[in-house]
Design a protein that fits this description.
InterPro entries: Glyco_trans_2-like, Nucleotide-diphossugar_trans. The chain is an alpha/beta fold. The protein contains five helices and four strands; from the N terminus they run H-E-H-E-H-E-H-E-H. It folds into two domains: 30 residues; 114 residues, Spore Coat Polysaccharide Biosynthesis Protein SpsA, Chain A, CATH 3.90.550.10.
């Protein structure tokens, strides 16, 4: 009787191991979507590279399996960044928030831009990119290289 019980225990453990082995193998072939991510981009006076940035993010969003929401906050640009973003919004899917130019400059204004952008993000995971703090010569390609290469895998 004890030998039969021993064989039964071994059979149950073997079935249990095969079940988890099959589950692990199926994970290689069946991708579950990642968590939804909001990408919050705060920019100011970025007319030379804003079109490239939006096109690159839209192209990347189509190729990845993660659900990406793009929120762009224009912090009172003095050049034609606002007009470029308005035209791009008709073609690409992203949320655009423009802040007025007449508001006082300084630290309080920077915090207001971030807080306003966070209010428009609908996902719990938010990746923040503040392009106002980067030099103008730095292309958007260099800024987003890490995000695009990692692919949130």
């Amino acid at each position: 009787m004890w030998s039969v019980m021993g064989y039964m225990v071994i059979l149950v453990l073997a079935c249990y191991g095969v079940y988890y082995l099959v589950q692990d193998l199926l994970r290689f072939f069946i991708y579950e979507p990642g968590p939804p991510v909001s990408l919050l981009v705060v920019l100011q006076d970025r007319a030379p590279d804003v079109e490239y940035l939006i096109r690159k993010m839209d192209n990347w969003r189509k190729q990845q399996w993660v659900e990406l929401e793009l929120v762009v906050v224009d912090d009172g640009s003095k050049d034609d960044t606002t007009e470029i973003l308005g035209k791009l919004q008709q073609k690409y899917s992203f949320r655009l928030i423009t802040l007025e130019k007449e508001q006082p400059a300084g630290e309080a204004r920077g915090e207001q831009a971030l807080q306003t952008g966070l209010l428009y993000c609908h996902n719990a995971l938010v990746w923040l990119v503040d392009l106002r703090k980067l030099p103008q010569g730095l292309q958007a390609d260099k800024v987003f290289r890490v995000f695009l290469c990692q692919g949130w895998r």
